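During the reporting period the student researcher (J.K.) took over the structure-prediction task from the postdoctoral fellow and processed the backlog of single-chain submissions. One of the processed entries is reproduced below for the supervisory committee.
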Amino acid sequence: MMIIDRSRLQRDDPGSYLHFMSEQHRIRVNGVELAFDAAPNTPLLYVLRNDGALNGPKFGCGLGQCGACTVIASGSAIRSCITPVADVVDRDIVTLEGLGTVQSPHPLQKAFMDEQAAQCGYCVNGMIMTAKALLDANPKPDESEIKRALSNNLCRCGSHVRIVRAVQRATGHGGQ
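J.K. obtained the following C-alpha cells:
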C-alpha cells in the first residue's frame, strides 16, 4: 500500500497526476461537445469513460503500450490513457462508439464481426481504432502495412490472423 503525504504535494505541478487544480474543459467527442471538470493532466481515458460514459476505450496497461485505450484525435490514433485532456481540447475525438451503431455498423466493425476477429474482445477497440486511422490515411494498405500499423496493439488471445483478415475485408480486398 502506498501512503501519500498530501501536505508535501505540489498542487501546481502540472506534470504530476496528483495535481488537484480542477478546471472546466470542453472537448468534442463523436461530434458532440462534452463539458466536464478535471485537472488539465487528467488522462483522456478517464474523462471519456467517467464523464462521457463511453466504454469503447479500455484501461489496459495505463502506459500507452497495449492499445486498448486507443481513440482517434484529429485523424491520428492516440493512446488515451497517457494523453492529458488539456492536449485534446481543440481536437475532434472519435471513439469506437462514434464509428457506427448496432443497426448500422461501420465497415470495419462489420468486418470484425464477419471474420470473428474478437475472442475475449478486450483489444478490439484498439485494433479497430488503429485500423480506422490507417484506412483513413491509406484506404488500400497491403498486408504488411496492416500488420505494421497494428503491431503496437496487443492481443493476448492470438486473434491476429483474423484481425488482419478483418482489416483486409474492410478495404475490399481480402477476408473470406
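The committee noted the following: Residues 1-11 have pLDDT under 50 and may be disordered.
J.K. will present the remaining backlog at the next meeting.
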